[in-house]
Amino acid sequence: MYSASDLKKGLKIEIDGAPWQITEFEFCKPGKGTALYRCRMKNMITGIGMEKTYRPTDKIDEPNIEEREMYYSYFDGQNYVFSDPTTYEEMSVDPAVLGDKAYFLIEESLCNFVIYNDEPIEITLPTFIEKEIVETEPGVRGDTATNVTKPAKIDNGFEIQVPLFINQGDIVKIDTRTGAYAERVSKA
Asked: Contact, 22 vs 14, CB < 8 A?
C-alpha cells in the first residue's frame, strides 16, 4: 500500500483492479484546508488517461507488477515464445500484445517485459534493429529534393519509407519505437 505522499511521476499504482502509471504529478497546498496531490495517469493495459486527486490520508494499492528481461526464441505458429535467460522458463505471448512490434523481432534479441498478474502487458524491444531491404524501386537520378523517400519492404513484409539512395539488398537500421528508417548500415 502506498500513501498519498509516496506519489510521484512514473510510479505504478492499482485502481479498480487495473495497473496505472502516473504521467504528471502536482502537489498543491491551498491557503486553507489540507494538501492535495493531483495526478494525471495512464492505464497500462488500455492506454486510457485520467486525472485523479488524492488527500494526504488516502491509501493507494500497489499493483502486482514485475519487470524482467527475456530473449525472443521463436514463433510457434500461434504465439511468440520468449525465454528467461537465467531460468530458461518459456513464456508464450499472443500476437495482439506485440502488435506491429512483431515485425521487428529478431531471434535471441533481449526484450524488456512488464508483467501484471503473470500476463505480459508491455514489451520493449531493442531500440534499433538491422534488416535487409528485399524489395524497393530504384531511385531516379535527379530526384534529389530534400527528404524525398520511397517505400521499401524488409524481409518479413513490413513496409518502411527510405531515402532514394537505398537499394534492394542494402541493410538498414530501423527504430523499433517508431518503425522508421534510421540509417544505412551496409550496401548490397
From this structure: no
Amino acid 91 reads: M
Share of the chain above pLDDT 90, in %: 31
Rg over alpha carbons for the chain, rounded to the nearest Å, is: 22
Angle at 185 between CA 107 and CA 147, to 5 degrees: 120
Q: Determine the distance from the C-alpha atom of residue 121 to the mean position of all C-alpha atoms in its chain, rounded to a whole number.
A: 10
Burial of residue 36, with CB atoms counted within 10 A of its CB: 0-12 exposed, 13-18 middle, 19 or more buried: middle
- Strand 80-83 versus strand 90-93 pairing type: antiparallel
pLDDT band at 56 (very low <50, low <70, confident <90, very high): confident
How far CA 37 is from CA of 2, 49, 55, 60, 144, in Å, comes to 13, 17, 6, 12, 54
Question: 105, 110, 109, 75: which is closest to 92 by C-alpha?
Answer: 75
Distance, CA of 93 to CA of 80 (rounded, Å): 5
Q: Cα–chain-centroid distance for residue 4?
A: 28
**In this structure, what DSSP letter does residue 45 have?**
T
pLDDT single digits (tens) 110-140: 999 988 888 888 889 999 999 999 998 887 6
